Amino acid sequence: MLFVVLLADDPKSKPKLPLISEKENLAVIEVKDRAALVVAHRKKNGWFGFPNAFVEKALRVSATTRNWNTVNKIVGFADAIGRKSMESKKR
Question: Which residue of 21, 24, 70, 85 has the fewest C-beta atoms within 10 A of its own C-beta?
Fold first, then answer.
């Protein structure tokens, strides 16, 4: 499962990637433009780890996390609103 962690600020220092959480079975694979991409694998209990606390602690910055599917839906909604706005301006 892929997550995007949106950072409130730039990390205090550049992290050495990948950042791994064995407890949560997570890997931070990229940090760029105040966003971290995280791959989550199933833990032994069958659940996926949730990366927010791990990323905040590792990068020393406040953050909020969204599933990649959620980010894609938001982009789709914004795109649709933008198209409607452009169509109404043409009239």
Answer: 85
- Give every strand in the sheet of 35-40, ordered side by side: 19-21, 26-32, 35-40, 2-7, 63-67
User: Which run of H or of E encompasses 42?
Assistant: none
In this structure, what token pair is assigned to residue 87?
């169509």
**What's residue 82's pLDDT?**
81
Number of domains into which the chain is organized? 1
Confidence of residue 52 (pLDDT cuts 50, 70, 90): very high
Burial, 40: exposed, middle or buried (Cβ in 10 Å; 0-12, 13-18, 19+)? Answer: buried
Tell me which of 58 and 86 has the higher pLDDT. 58
Domain that holds residue 82: 2-90
